[in-house]
């Protein structure tokens, strides 16, 4: 996850991203927030499962609110901008040589977000 101030919350895995992974990630995140927080999700099937929908009332009580983007709107998902910049600008060909080197490079990029690396999302803001 990334916000418009280039702050990231992430977890790297070599497993498939499934409902359980998303559920555990959001559950943990819901205990870390200190103010009302919106998480914008696309319409991936794993984001709309019964298990996710059942947790929404509990997360809302903790201040975590989910907002689902309209279908077919990757241009509204700022995480897509992050991945595009990472793949085209920040990752180097040697980073792709092994799973370990790729995981390290991705973690390095995400850890640098908001510090060494920033994305200007201002052109997405409405006045």
Structure description:
- This protein is mainly alpha-helical.
- It has a single domain (19-124), classed as Nucleotidyltransferase, domain 5, CATH 3.30.420.
- It is built from four helices and two strands, in the order αβαβαα.
- Strands 1-2 form a two-stranded parallel sheet.
- Helix 2 (50-61) links the parallel strand 1 and strand 2 (64-68).
- The model has no long low-confidence stretch (mean pLDDT 87).
| Proportion of helical residues | 40-55%
From the alpha carbons, calculate the radius of gyration and give it in angstroms: 16 Å
User: What is the highest CATH level, the class?
Assistant: Alpha Beta
- Give the termini distance in whole angstroms: 24 Å
Strands of the biggest beta sheet: in what spatial order? 1-2
Strand content: 5-15%
Tell me, rounded to a whole number, the average pLDDT.
87
List keywords for this structure.
two-stranded parallel sheet; 127 residues; Nucleotidyltransferase, domain 5; mainly alpha; 42% helix
In short:
By secondary structure, the chain is mainly alpha-helical. Helix content is 42%, strand content 8%. The protein has helices spanning 19-32, 50-61, 78-90, 99-112; strands spanning 37-41, 64-68.
Write the layout of secondary structure elements.
Blueprint lengths: L18 H14 L4 E5 L8 H12 L2 E5 L9 H13 L8 H14 L15
Parallel strand pairs: 1-2
Helix pairs in contact: 1-2
